[in-house]
Amino acid sequence: MMISTRGRHALSVMLDLAEHDGQGSVPLKDIAARHDISEKYLESIVAILSKAGFVSGVRGKGGGYTLTKEPRMYTVGSILKLTELSLSPVACVGDKASVCDHASSCKTLPMWEKLDEMIDSYLESITLCDLLNREYDCKI
Asked: Where are the beta strands (DSSP E) in 45-84?
């Protein structure tokens, strides 16, 4: 498993919006400048996040993007699953697993399944608040 640039940038966008949560809409050009990422490239990432309901956007003067939920409600896993084809370590495990003819006799399959569970559990346990270390702002 290797997280793509798109996945890493999606996480950066979400973290940026979490940092500015409650301060109004954040223009995409500001996010692009802060992270030295092409605004055009960020548009494609924000489209994915918007379609999934993670962010909402306002066009025009004073427009930009905001989170649709509190930062503590977003996990790293949920964000990466939107942008990555798979977070699984091998093709024969995970949500989009390809069926292998040797699965019934594979000695390593249980190990890969456990690793897949560990990766998912770990990434689902980390929220935007955890990454920002803003526990005081993110209490339930």
From this structure: 55-58, 64-67
Q: Could you tell me if 69 and 75 are in contact, meaning their C-beta atoms sit under 8 angstroms apart?
A: no
Q: Please, what are the averages of pLDDT over each run of 10 residues along the chain (140 residues)?
A: 92 95 92 94 96 92 90 96 88 72 82 93 95 64
Q: Residue 44 phi/psi, 5° resolution?
A: -70, -35
User: Exposure of 133 by Cβ count < 10 A (0-12 exposed, 13-18 middle, 19+ buried)?
Assistant: exposed
CATH class of the 5-137 domain in this structure: mainly alpha
Which tokens is 37 given?
């990422």
Q: Which of 109, 76, 73 has its CA nearest to residue 94?
A: 109
Beta bridge partners, 56, equal 66
Buried b or exposed e, range 65-89, using 16+ CB within 10 angstroms: bbbeebbbebbbbebbbbbbeebbb
The per-residue pLDDT for 135 is 52
